Amino acid sequence: MMPHSPYLSEETEGASALRFYNHERAEEGIRELATWLQGRRIAVLTGAGCSTDSGIPDYRSEESLKRKRNPIQYNQFLRDLSARRRYWARSFVGWPRFRDKEPNLTHQILARIEQQGRMTGLITQNVDRLHHKAGSSRIVELHGALADVRCLDCGLFEPRDDVQARLAECNAAWHAEVLSIAPDGDVDLPQEAYDSFEMVSCLRCHGPLKPHVVFFGENVAQEVVQAAWEIVLQADALLVLGSSLTVYSGYRFVKGAAEQEKPVAIVNLGATRGDPHASLRLDLPLKTVMPHLETLLS
Ligand SMILES: NC(=O)c1ccc[n+]([C@@H]2O[C@H](COP(=O)([O-])OP(=O)(O)OC[C@H]3O[C@@H](n4cnc5c(N)ncnc54)[C@H](O)[C@@H]3O)[C@@H](O)[C@H]2O)c1
Ligand SMILES: [Zn+2]
Fold first, then answer.
1. Ligand 1: which of 5, 23, 59, 272 to mutate, judged by most atoms within 8 Å of the beta carbon?
2. Minimal CA–CA distance to 40: which of 111, 113, 131?
3. Which of 64, 189, 292, 298 could cross-link to 193 by cystine, CB 3.0-4.6 Å?
4. What is the pLDDT of residues 92-120, one digit of tens each?
5. Which domains are seen in the chain, by residue range?
6. Catalytic (active-site) positions
7. CA of 162 to the centre of ligand 2 (A)
8. What is the pTM of this model?
9. What residue owns the CA closest to ligand 1's atom 35?
10. CB neighbourhood size of 277 (10 A)
11. Do 292 and 30 form a contact (C-beta atoms < 8 A)?
């Protein structure tokens, strides 16, 4: 069966070799994935789809695309003080909910697969640190993590929880009525709440603070990209889990693996930009695939 993917056409090179499975042949697809994994050391690339079962929404599933979101751009954060203040006010309210999210079965099974020596490492586009919480050890966080904050001037790192405590102190009398709240903790507040919110600055140089995540319009640091390439280079194959691969910073590893003639398998609900490079494609929910896969591998 051919997948319905806007990324594939009859002319797409390699598409004829693609084996595609959805709910109609889930069992067969998962068995094939288990066989694909046997005897290989794999690099794993994960995206927001890995964390939806932990209650953190992704950006590009059909459901999420219906919600209008307007994430802050890097330049705006740097240059527009009121936008920066708005960001910190929202994240002050939203952080405790985000921080308390727990890893799900996919995170836990990936940690166990690593312990079995089947993986060279894990590259994640997620900023939620749930792979760490689940016990994976070799992890490259391509887009950083919300749990870290960094000074824009001197580069000093500070844990987000410490910044949160300082923000709470400075804003002891501040109260905002929450207009709406997304499951990832992002909130909407009234304008006057933004105007009266006090930001805190670097403990060392008083410079402005930014969460250590890659914003839209910002580049991934070269050493981070390099560390991720090491994981791919040392692997025999690449497995992608829960990413639309729309963002180039993740997609490049799929393209690169294919160029190195390493097999690529993708488990994702819905089409991905990497589909033309995959030889095995499961259009299935991770909670259906992962526990079954683990049983087949044991
Ligand atoms: N958890 C997080 O940290 C988080 C959440 C949202 C966005 N982001 C950021 O936004 C960017 C989003 O890119 P992306 O490619 O990671 O995500 P994306 O939103 O572009 O794609 C996620 C894909 O996962 C699929 N999916 C959702 N739940 C699934 C499930 N249970 N099983 C299988 N597939 C599932 C969706 O259909 C979608 O195609 C990333 O760069 C990331 O930094 C991070
Ligand atoms: Zn500083």
1. 59
2. 113
3. 189
4. 999 999 999 999 999 999 999 999 999 99
5. 17-56+103-143+220-297 (3.40.50.1220), 64-100+146-213 (3.30.1600)
6. 143
7. 15
8. 0.93
9. 49
10. 27
11. yes
